[in-house]
Amino acid sequence: QMADPFLYDTGRRSQYGCLGHEVQIEHIKAYVCRPSFFTDKAVIVIHDIFGWLFPDIRYIVDLIAGHGYITICPDFFKGTDPWKTTDHWADFADWMKDHDPTKVDKEADVVLKYLKEQCGAKKIGIVGFSWGGMAVHHLMLKNPQLTAGVSLYGIIRDSEERYNLLNPTFFIFGEKDHTISYDQITLLEEKLKQYCRVAYKIKVYPGQVHGFAKLKPEDMKPDDKPYIEEARKDMIDWIKMFI
Question: GO MF annotations for this entry (predicted)?
Answer without folding.
Answer: hydrolase activity
